[in-house]
Every structure is written in C-alpha cells, then in structure tokens.
Amino acid sequence: MLKNRTGVTTYCDMMVAMATLLLALSAISTGLFAGYFLIFQTGIMPALGQLTDEQFVPAMRRVNQYVPRPVFLLTFFAIVGFPAAALAVPVDGRSDNQKWLLVAGLVCAVINHLVTIGGNVPLNNALESSPAPARAARLAFEGRWNAFHRVRTLFSVAAFVLVVSATLS
Q1: Angle, nearest 10°, between helix axes 96-115 and 11-39?
Q2: 5-13 contact pairs (CB < 8 A, 24+)
Q3: d(Cα 31, Cα 135) in Å, to the nearest integer?
Q4: Taking a C-beta distance cutoff of 8 angstroms, is the pair 46, 83 a contact?
Q5: Cα separation of 92 and 162, whole Å?
Q6: Which of 1, 133, 149, 161 lies most in the core, judged by the most C-beta atoms within 10 Å?
Q7: Alpha helices, DSSP H only, in the chain?
Q8: Residue 27 backbone dihedrals phi, psi, to 5 degrees
C-alpha cells in the first residue's frame, strides 16, 4: 500500500498509483504492438514479397490464420484499453500536456484499429476465400494490403511515441 508523508494511504495516492500503472501498461502495450507491425512492415512482408505467387498466397493465408491468436488480440485491445483507462482515472496534478499526449496516442491507436478492421481484415478474408488462381488472388490482395499496413504501422508507431511522451511528461 502507498502511504503519504503522514504514513496514511489516501484515495488520491491510490489513484496516482493506478494512473501510473495504467500509463506504464499503455507504453508497454503500444510499444509491443508498434514493434510487431514495424517488423511485419520491414521484414516479413518484404520476405513474403520475394515468393512466387504459388508460394505467397498459401503463406499469407497461413499467416492470417495464425495472427489473430490470444497474444495478438490482447495487445490489439490493450493499446486502446490501457490509455482509455489511464485517462479515466481521476488524478489531481496531471498536466494538460500529459493528458493531450495520451489522448493523441489513443486517437492514433483507434485509427490503427479502424484501418485494420476496415482494410486489412476484409482483404485477409477475401484472400482466404478466393477461388482465383494464385496470380489473380495476389494481385487483388498484396498491394492494397501493404498500403493499409503502412498506414496502420505509422499510426501504431505514432501511438507509441505519443504514449511514451505522455509517460515522460
């Protein structure tokens, strides 16, 4: 338990501790998520891009089957949930700068999710169910998916930078 200068734990002390913990969890989760997307952008997709059409389509289908697992889903929801919870905790003395940096980070995380849900996931589903030959399926998928992924990578990295900035302010 936290105790103030008089040795008594107060509601305010507990709220500050809770806000601090939620802010740290926000930074950790957005960092993990941004790192995952950045590695996918800079390593995995370029490597898959070197495959033939007949190799690329089943490889990407396999990736799309394995990504939405518990660890991914946990961080997917955490990058919105932890910052929102940190903002919801009433804290006296929180600077406006910290609040607005955290809000901006949360907005970036939400935009990331909207791009994922509205762009990448429908393309993943279309690739999974496509009866088209590998070349046609890849042409309908790869360029658009990579474009959406670049956008969501940018927003996830921005969310991380903003949340860390809020933590340091």
Answers
A1: 40
A2: 12/92
A3: 35
A4: no
A5: 21
A6: 149
A7: 11-39, 45-49, 53-66, 70-88, 96-115, 121-129, 134-168
A8: -65, -45
> What are the φ and ψ backbone dihedral angles of 92, each rounded to 5 degrees?
-75, 140
Q: Residue holding tokens 């799309």?
A: 64
Residue pair 166/101 in contact (Cβ under 8 Å)? The answer is yes
pLDDT digits (tens, 9 = 90+) for 41-65: 999 999 999 999 999 999 999 999 9
DSSP structure class, residue 40:
I
Quote the DSSP letter at residue 120.
Answer: I
Give the torsion sign (CA, 132, 134, 140, 146).
Answer: positive
Tokens of 164: 């860390």
Mean pLDDT of 128-133: 95
User: Can you tell me the distance from the alpha carbon of 92 to that of 85, in angstroms, rounded to the nearest whole number?
Assistant: 16
Q: Which two tokens stand for residue 40?
A: 């996918």
Tell me if the pTM is above 0.85: yes
Q: Which is it for the CA torsion 93, 156, 121, 25, positive or negative?
A: negative
